[in-house]
Amino acid sequence: MGVDASSIAKIERNMRYINGIIKHKGRQILKNYSITTPQFIALQWLLEGGDLTIGELSNKINLAFSTTTDLVDRMEKKELVERKRDANDRRVVRIHLLPKGQKIIREVIDERRVYLSTVLADVPSNEVDMLHEVMELLLDKMKLERENN
């Protein structure tokens, strides 16, 4: 017994709208910093995933290798990241997040969390907990589906 198409359509629409609102809010917050949205996304991946090669970062942010290289060049000039040789294989160069980049990402994420807290302030805590559980379930299922394809 599956979920009806009408419910799926509503869920998809709501997720698209939520994503759009969060992106818009994120762009507003980023105006206070000297980074672009693609730089923010790249810095987030580096914060969460640790040092990555340009190829790995390129795959995560869905940009061409050459575009990612240019992005890293600009972030390196702003002292947000640095290129470092891999300790195990000197031929491999990894992108390393510097303290200035970490600080910006943490501040922007904190501001986004404050925004979300404000939006959810009058929602009962049991409903917020339920929302969290359902989103975790959805994310886990999407990750598993991605791994299997």
Specify the helix fraction band: over 70%
Number of helices: 6
- Overall average residue pLDDT: 90
| Beginning-to-end CA distance, first to last residue | 24 Å
Annotated CATH architecture: Orthogonal Bundle
Query: What is the assembly state of the chains in this entry?
Result: single chain
Radius of gyration equals: 18 Å
Going by CATH, the homologous superfamily would be Winged helix-like DNA-binding domain superfamily/Winged helix DNA-binding domain
Report the uncertain regions: none
Shape: globular
**The CATH C-level class name:** Mainly Alpha
The side-by-side strand order for the widest beta sheet comes to 1-2
CATH topology: Arc Repressor Mutant, subunit A
Number of domains: 1
Beta-strand fraction estimate? 5-15%
Structure classification: mainly alpha
The major sheet is characterized as: 2 strands, antiparallel
Which sequence of SSEs, written as H and E, runs from N to C?
A: HHHHEEHH
Q: What is the count of β-strands? A: 2
Task: Name its key features.
149 residues; mainly alpha; Arc Repressor Mutant, subunit A; two-stranded antiparallel ribbon; 6 helices; 2 strands; globular
Give a written overview of the molecule.
By secondary structure, the protein is mainly alpha-helical. It is built from 6 helices and 2 strands. Strands 1-2 form a two-stranded antiparallel ribbon. Helix 1 (5-30) crosses helix 5 (99-120) and helix 3 (54-61) packs across helix 4 (65-77). 13% of the residues are buried.
Q: What's this model, at a glance?
A:
By secondary structure, this protein is mostly helical.
